[in-house]
Amino acid sequence: MEIDPSSRGWSGGIYDEARKGWLYPMEYNPAAKTAFKQNQWNHYRIECIGNSIRTWVNGIA
Questions:
Q1: What is the DSSP letter of 11?
Q2: Cα separation of 17 and 38, whole Å?
Q3: Which one has a higher pLDDT value, 31 or 45?
């Protein structure tokens, strides 16, 4: 799961280093792009069950 403090706002996205591509780019979830709080504590949750991966940043999936 990426932590992206830039204005792009892709914290919570999943990037596959081996295949050099985003498995879940944040364009799929524009509401989550504002979840990361710059210069504050942020809470991250990653849930992996079977072949499903879900991420949350500050409670926003």
A1: T
A2: 25
A3: 45
